[in-house]
Design goal:
Elements (H helix, E strand, L loop, with lengths): L9 H17 L1 H27 L5 H11 L5 H16 L14 H27 L8 H32 L7 H25 L4 E2 L7 H23 L2 H6 L3 H31 L5 E2 L2
Antiparallel strand pairs: 1-2
Length: about 290
């Protein structure tokens, strides 16, 4: 595997220019809007599934504390929505969804409905990354669904284990709560989580393999850093510009949450565009090859 690096001087400007032009040509803003829409619809089912999985490892109170700690690194509007989803999931598990529609198989049907919502959101993200990486969609609907299902279940399982680790971290950092060391650990953990998530998406989502491309890339690191910055600055920006409150009134929290999702997806797609641009301009990253 060839070592990845960013070329100096004019090549850097060429890479940035290529990435910006490609992002505009692909319309990543429009693609991100679709992904954000499906992600918003999948939030409550995803949290319900996550709580159900985590309940196998933790108690209900521990799950609530862990999720609320995770929302500390989210903008206030996003944290409010996730907290509502958590309360709804605590009252009604994923197995209870759709029980009235099919009482004999209610629990299984409810799990399928919840999981299907998450799969559709994942498929939307996979399609967007296919467009960004300019890969031909070689996956059939059945194969795409299987890959999305595997990725969704894997992500939920990892998040459930991460919640268990968060509980241990909460107790370990209790003496440093509200201090600089505690904040550094919290945001460093967020950066590593974003980095691993984005890197895995860049590797799994495209319809083809990624020959020669290292797991950690410049685009992935840049996207993870931008996501951390977005989470820390989004609430401040929204708070200092009251346009959302004036325009949307009581729906301003939902509007801010959707906007945060949209910006997050744009950042992920922009990181992918950066990786493609580096390959096109320098040849240091392997091309995406069909399966």
């Amino acid at each position: 595997m060839r070592e990845s690096c960013v070329p100096p001087g004019r090549a850097i400007l060429a890479v940035i220019r290529h990435a910006a032009l490609a992002a505009n040509e692909h319309g990543i803003g429009f693609m991100a809007a679709g992904v954000a829409f499906w992600s918003a619809l999948a939030l409550f089912p995803a949290v319900a599934l996550l709580v159900w999985l985590a309940h196998q490892l933790l108690g209900v109170a521990d799950i609530r504390d862990a999720v609320l700690m995770v929302t500390d690194v989210m903008p206030e509007s996003a944290g409010d929505i996730v907290a509502r989803a958590l309360r709804a999931a605590s009252d009604t598990g994923p197995a209870d969804r759709g029980a009235d529609l099919a009482r004999p198989v209610g629990p299984a049907f409810g799990l399928v409905v919840s999981l299907w919502s998450v799969i559709v959101a994942m498929q939307a993200l996979f399609h967007a990354l296919d467009m960004t990486f300019e890969t031909e969609r070689r996956r059939s609907w059945l194969r795409l669904t299987a890959v999305s299902l595997a990725f969704s279940i894997g992500a939920l399982a990892v998040m459930a284990c991460a919640l268990a680790a968060t509980i241990a971290m909460t107790h370990a950092l209790a003496p440093f709560d509200g201090t600089l060391p505690g904040a550094l650990v919290r945001w460093s953990t967020a950066f590593v989580t974003f980095l691993l998530t984005v890197a895995t998406l860049y590797r799994v989502a495209p319809s083809g393999g990624r020959k020669g491309l290292p797991f950690l890339t410049v685009g992935g690191v840049a996207a993870a850093a931008a996501l951390v910055a977005e989470c820390s600055l989004f609430s401040w920006v929204v708070g200092h510009f009251s346009t959302l409150d004036v325009t949307y009134g009581s729906l301003s929290t939902v509007a801010a949450f959707l906007l945060w999702l949209w910006v997050s997806v744009v950042i992920v797609l922009a990181g992918a565009e950066l990786d493609v641009a580096i390959h096109r301009e320098t040849g240091r990253y392997g091309a995406v090859s069909p399966e």
